[in-house]
Specification:
The chain is an alpha+beta fold. The protein has ten helices and eight strands. Strands 1, 2, 3, 4, 5, 6, 7 and 8 form an eight-stranded mixed sheet that branches. The two termini are about 35 Å apart.
């Protein structure tokens, strides 16, 4: 197994070949084939967010982003599952160490999370029982453990804040609800639980302090999770531009002629490429600034957190625009099922519907960026 992040970067190359070969199957079956799941396990991508004390790599966020972009350029669903799998494993540093050693005993296992506090964790004698139903549980088909949001109910009613409660995938019901146009292979189904007994050591709150040491654990949680997720639409858009560039180089059979001979189309291609690189650079610059601060032991203030979140939202929006340009440049052939440009457009649009990319956050993040005192949990800490 890969022993450091550099090994993972090299191993992802083998993943790309498997994903490319199985891309149509991912779309048709609405899940990752076993061959893709196995390739992701062997690459070590799921170790990136796990503490070294648990045989993980606790890698820099930029390494997680690089992994996501490269896979997403080939297939958005595979990248989304890889990011959810690795991002869910970051919670190994936030729950009690004893619980983490059980839930994350296999560092190469990707897992799933759905944060919305739609469940109830109720004390029943000496036990706590979980019930609820959660939508959009991406990667649930390929997970051993699933972390879901719930409110803890005691004798005096619900506690002050939600918790992420990890239960075995075999203990919940996965409902076949994810029949989407984009990101079809992510398995983002509803899951439900009824009176599942939960060990409180396998729960954590967004406000909990991580127990491992290292730079990754000095970063606010969402400055790890959101940029990693934003790397997926960036990679999807990059893959779409790469396909347009291939058509320009190799030529195509089309009534509208060759791309390379159309100055307007090539100018639009160049402008889209420039916008995408700019959005990517802005996000990476903000992440690097936070990483250097955390590496020196300094706090990552709310202004910088807001900059990271705003850059992530901007990356998502630009990626949708760029994929749309690429699809338009693909001409009539891009209207057919099976077109990589149509798939990229559908995938990137589906990714933007995620709550974390919603424009409803812009105002509060903007206030924090301006230096105002903003209380916006759990995003700003």
């Amino acid at each position: 197994m890969p022993g450091e992040a550099g090994d993972v970067r090299g191993a992802v190359g083998a993943v790309l070949a498997v994903v490319a070969e199985r891309a149509d199957e991912i779309e048709r079956r609405r899940r990752l084939p076993d061959e893709v799941v196995g390739a992701l396990r062997r690459s070590g991508v799921h170790r990136l967010g796990i503490p070294t004390a648990l045989d993980g790599l606790q890698a820099p966020v930029l390494d997680m982003m690089d992994m996501a972009e490269r896979i997403a350029a080939v297939d958005g669903s595979a990248a989304w599952c890889a990011v959810i799998g690795a991002g869910s494993n970051v919670f190994a540093g936030y729950m009690a160490e004893d619980g983490a050693r059980t839930v994350f005993a296999d560092p190469d296992q990707g897992n799933a999370t759905m944060f919305a506090p739609l469940g109830s964790l109720v004390r029943d004698g000496d036990e706590h029982r979980l019930s609820g139903r959660w939508p959009f549980t991406s990667n649930c088909l390929h997970s051993e453990w699933i972390g879901v949001g719930a409110l803890v109910h005691g004798p005096d009613g619900p506690g002050p804040g939600p918790r992420v409660v990890f239960v075995r995938a075999s203990e919940v019901t996965i409902e076949d609800t994810w029949d989407s146009v984009g990101l079809r292979g992510t398995g983002s189904h509803h899951v439900s639980a009824r009176d599942v007994v939960v060990d409180l050591d396998r729960c954590c709150a967004f406000s909990d302090r991580p127990w491992p040491e290292g730079t990754l654990w000095r970063l606010p949680l969402y400055t790890v999770l959101l940029p990693s997720l934003a790397a997926v639409p960036l990679g999807i858009a990059r893959g779409a531009l790469d396909e347009v560039a291939r058509q320009a180089r190799e030529g195509r059979t089309a009534r509208r002629g060759q791309l390379a001979e159309d100055p307007v189309s090539m100018a639009e291609f160049a402008a889209a490429d420039n916008r995408l690189r700019g959005a990517r650079a802005a996000l990476r610059e903000a992440i690097e600034e936070a990483h250097l601060l955390a590496e020196r032991g300094g706090p990552v203030g709310r202004g910088l957190q807001a900059k990271i979140y705003l850059s992530s939202l901007h990356a998502s929006d630009v990626s949708v625009d760029v994929a749309s340009v690429a699809h338009q440049l693909g001409g009539g052939a891009a209207a057919y099922v099976g077109s990589p440009l149509l798939r990229a457009l559908c995938d990137v649009q589906a990714s933007r519907q995620h709550l974390l990319f919603s424009h409803k956050h812009l105002s509060e993040f903007g206030k924090a960026l301006a230096g105002l005192d903003v209380d916006y949990p759990p995003y700003l800490t």
